């Protein structure tokens, strides 16, 4: 079963079960069990060993993964502190006085998401904690908030030269190639990311929603922000104790952002003489975010205690409350990482690589579109964008070497990046999707099901645009055509929705 279509079956089964049953934990675990059975040849002891020792334990002992989990806990504590101090409530009241429409609050969420382009994990949880009280006041559904968070996380990071994603893509570039330059040259062709941002703005400004999201938004206008009866995060776990002001939310967030930037460039060697750009390209996002979030946590503690916003005992109670708030996200992440480990051990990467290699010869000008679709499917099945980059970017550059000067090489690299983000968006086992649900305090599978139609809509337009780009090989013209197609599609949807 290794290196064949069977290598993708555990992930596909887990995803289908999750969408059908609306229950993530058991669906992921069933997928993990299938992966263990396939790998061991249906051997009982071999299956258990592979699932727990080589799967779950290995993933949870991986330094990068542990760093992300520690970052989550620190961020959860900071959010709990801000809620208990009253900073989030004060900011919500201030924003309600200045942003008095559902359109305005959605645009503000998009803008904040674009501004926090450093890292997608950081983006999801920060934007969620800041904007959640504001969107609640304007009766924007939690599903819509989760969509806005998710669509300004990975799509923004993948077109921002100074981000953890730029560093990841640079690392997958062939030896002797300037990875950061390759990333920058691919930005104009990253249609999915650019069109997703345009679509969000269009949906907000023209008050358009369709599919399951329309139901959630209609219910939110009537006062039900969740729609799903099983939603249990209707209130923050930290009851307000302090009489915090807006500064008690704004300052910790600013310190957090600055600290995370410093942490990332520190891991990249900035303080050892590296340039800012190179230190970001060589940074370790996991360690950098841990250092940054710890710095933000310490400053928040000291700031609240000095200003007597929160007593010391209440600050300490936020440690356990912040950890508890992140338990659902940590659990799903651990299971998703384990499932990814199962597909990796079954040789999913080599199977997909073989498909791309066979396709390259006969569909020359359709190859960017084909790469986009394959990247979508691989990221959807494995729940990882970065893993998809690592598999497909070297393959596409073998087919179209950069040294040949063929524009198709850049277009294909960008198609791989765009497809990875698209699949990541659609997948219920994606870490970024999980983070977005956690940031919005939205039921995870509700977020997946409501976002899916929007992501697929942009994916179809992007697919057509990549076919056009392969023939005309002009970034500006093909992007313009893609934007026109996107707006035309949404205009048709708006007319149909108006008739209904």
3D architecture notes:
This protein has 500 residues and is mainly α. 76% of the residues lie in helices and 0% in strands. It has helices spanning 9-21, 24-40, 44-60, 63-85, 87-98, 102-115, 120-137, 142-151, 154-157, 164-171, 179-186, 191-205, 212-221, 247-267, 276-281, 285-306, 312-345, 348-362, 367-382, 385-399, 407-426, 431-440, 444-472, 475-499. The longest helix is centred in the middle third of the chain and has 34 residues, at 312-345. The chain starts with 8 loop residues before the first helix and ends with a helix.
Q: What's the gist of this structure?
A:
The protein has 500 residues and is an all-alpha fold.
Helicity range of the residues? over 70%
Please provide the ordered H/E string of secondary-structure elements: HHHHHHHHHHHHHHHHHHHHHHHH
Q: Structural class of the helices, strands and pairings?
A: mainly alpha
Radius of gyration over C-alpha positions, nearest whole angstrom:
22 Å
Number of separate strands: 0
Distance between the termini: 48 Å
Features:
mainly alpha; 24 helices; 500 residues
Topology:
Blueprint: H1 9-21, H2 24-40, H3 44-60, H4 63-85, H5 87-98, H6 102-115, H7 120-137, H8 142-151, H9 154-157, H10 164-171, H11 179-186, H12 191-205, H13 212-221, H14 247-267, H15 276-281, H16 285-306, H17 312-345, H18 348-362, H19 367-382, H20 385-399, H21 407-426, H22 431-440, H23 444-472, H24 475-499
């Amino acid at each position: 079963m290794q290196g064949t279509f069977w290598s993708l079956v555990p992930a596909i089964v887990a995803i289908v079960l999750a969408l059908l049953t609306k229950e993530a934990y058991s669906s992921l675990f069933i997928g993990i069990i299938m992966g263990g059975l396939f790998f061991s040849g249906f051997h009982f002891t071999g299956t258990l060993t592979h699932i727990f020792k080589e799967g779950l334990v290995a993933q949870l002992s991986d330094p990068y993964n542990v760093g992300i989990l520690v970052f989550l806990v620190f961020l959860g504590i900071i959010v709990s502190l801000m809620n208990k101090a009253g900073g989030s409530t004060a900011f919500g009241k201030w924003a309600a006085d200045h942003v008095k429409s559902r359109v305005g609050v959605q645009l503000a969420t998009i803008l904040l998401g674009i501004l926090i382009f450093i890292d997608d994990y950081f983006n999801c949880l920060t934007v969620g904690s800041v904007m959640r009280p504001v969107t609640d006041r304007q009766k924007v559904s939690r599903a819509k908030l989760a969509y806005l968070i998710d669509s300004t996380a990975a799509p923004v990071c993948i077109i921002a030269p100074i981000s953890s994603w730029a560093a990841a893509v640079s690392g997958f570039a062939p030896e002797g190639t300037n990875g950061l330059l390759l990333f920058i040259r691919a930005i104009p062709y990253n249609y999915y990311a650019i069109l997703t941002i345009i679509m969000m703005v269009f949906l907000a400004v023209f008050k358009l929603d369709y599919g399951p999201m329309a139901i959630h938004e209609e219910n939110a206008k009537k006062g039900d922000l969740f729609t799903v009866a099983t939603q249990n995060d209707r209130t923050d776990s930290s009851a307000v104790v302090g009489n915090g002001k807006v500064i008690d939310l704004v300052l910790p967030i600013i310190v957090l952002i600055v600290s995370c930037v410093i942490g990332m460039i520190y891991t990249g060697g900035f303080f050892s003489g590296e340039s800012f750009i190179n230190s970001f390209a060589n940074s370790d996002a996991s360690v950098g975010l841990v250092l940054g979030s710890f710095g933000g946590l310490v400053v928040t503690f000291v700031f609240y205690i000095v200003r007597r916003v929160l007593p010391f005992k209440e600050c300490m109670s936020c440690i356990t409350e912040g950890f508890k708030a992140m338990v659902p996200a940590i659990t799903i992440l651990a299971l998703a990482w384990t499932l990814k480990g199962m597909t990796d051990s079954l040789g999913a990467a080599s199977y997909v690589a073989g498909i791309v290699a066979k396709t390259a010869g006969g569909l020359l000008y359709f190859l960017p579109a084909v790469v986009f679709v394959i990247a979508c499917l691989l990221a959807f099945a494995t729940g990882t964008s970065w893993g998809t980059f690592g598999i497909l970017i070297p393959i596409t550059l073998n087919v179209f070497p950069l040294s040949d000067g063929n524009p198709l090489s850049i277009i294909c690299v960008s198609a791989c990046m765009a497809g990875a983000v698209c699949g990541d968006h659609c997948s219920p086992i994606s870490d970024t999707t999980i983070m977005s649900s956690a940031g919005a305090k939205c039921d995870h599978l509700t977020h997946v099901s409501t976002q899916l139609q929007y992501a697929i809509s942009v994916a179809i337009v992007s697919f057509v645009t990549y076919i056009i780009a392969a023939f005309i090989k002009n970034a500006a013209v093909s992007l313009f055509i893609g934007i026109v197609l996107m707006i035309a599609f949404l205009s048709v949807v708006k007319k149909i929705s108006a008739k209904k």
